[in-house]
Amino acid sequence: MKDFFQSTKFKILAAVFVVLCAFMLRATMSGGLTPLTSQLLSVVTTPLQSAASGVSESVGGLYRHLFQAGEIEEENAQLEEKVRTLTQQVADLERYRRENEQLREYLEIKEEHSDFSFASASVIGRDTAERFYSFTIDAGSEAGIEKFDPVITSDGLVGLVSEVGKNYAKVLTILDTTIEVGAYDIRTRDIGTTSGDITLARNGQLRLNMLPKDCTVSQGDLIYTTGYGGLYPKDLAIGEVTEIHTDSSGMSMYAVIDPLSDIETVKDVLVITSFEGQGEQVFE
Amino acid sequence: MGRKRALIAGKHLIYCFGLIFCYVLQTTPGFLQIFGVKPFLVIPAVIAIAMQEGEFTGALYGALGGMLCDMGANTFYGFYTLTLFLYGAAVGLALIYLMKNDRKTAVLCCLVYTGGMALIEYIFYYLLYGFAGNWQVLLFQLTPRVLYTCLVMPLFYFGERKLFDYFSRRTEEI
Lengths: 284, 174
Fold this sequence. Notes:
- The complex is a heterodimer of chains A (284) and B (174).
- Chain A has 5 helices and 12 strands.
- Chain A is of the alpha+beta class and 284 residues long.
- By secondary structure, chain B is mostly helical.
- Chain B: The chain crosses the membrane at residues 12-32, 77-99, 106-129, 135-159.
């Protein structure tokens, strides 16, 4: 063991250790700026992740098509080639349909919120060490995405960007216990703050906290963002109230919310790169 | 001499692409996911390399594997890079002075690292913040992930041993 600590190898490893520490400190001090090493590695990994997630997504459909082809093969072997061609066409049509849907959703949101600027992205990674369904998308600073940009689907709010690389970005979802969003009940106008909850997150739900004791929020009410704070735009749909409870202090109420976006399995998202009032109160 | 170098370079190229491949699979949505739990694939690969190659190479591949893990995880940058770097060296040294190079040791090494990391993650990301019901993260998310990773560890151990033996044999032949 003593030999190792006196060897050149040890000195090299010690030098590498110091360099890694320097990278870590720089990343911490730059407030989440993606380190050079991650930027370099992402050049290789992001296209591969994109391809892998595409394969993973289409595996379900592929099995279905293969099963159908098998049935047809049993009935008539001569039609096998035709089925294969049709299957390919179906896959193409499915891809066009998805693209079409995405563009239509984009147009609808754009018509509703003319002040929004978007970057569309696909989910390419859900890591083993993910927190509360956080994920990685295939667009980054090159697409104009910045840290803290809100992430949505046509159904509603999904989360916000926590880290940006050149061609990728990491997204924390609204189910995360560290993410708080100013929100209000569109029917009663009661105001509160949504936040993740470990127990509820397992069912894909979150909490609307700090509701007044005399609030009239009820099951089925829709919850929207207030826009206060400048981090999220006003009037983005968050979810639907499923339960109302008195909180542990007995001083206020909280509601359990089902997000309108399917956060656990979301595949395509839109990142709002700019909107009216962005960062007004947060960064002042 | 030239062929020997080419063989060594080939082996390290396989290691590098192997780690990247493991990272891509590890982050592929739904891949190997059972009841919402996915195993780490990069960590067992790094441990397997460190067990065969020793402390120096183990540490360097630990750093590479850690950088990949840091890219996917929502932890502060360097969490996995530094720990896997040190652990790669530690595993290499432990194999020389303390432990046998076998499947049980591989699983034990994997358990110690993933278990330790899970505990650190639990304490610093959940327990200290006092989130209600934080024990559920430990019980339903972190512990199953550790066990699942340990379950796939032998595959990496045997795979890496075969690869290492193959290249050692070829190098000796020259």
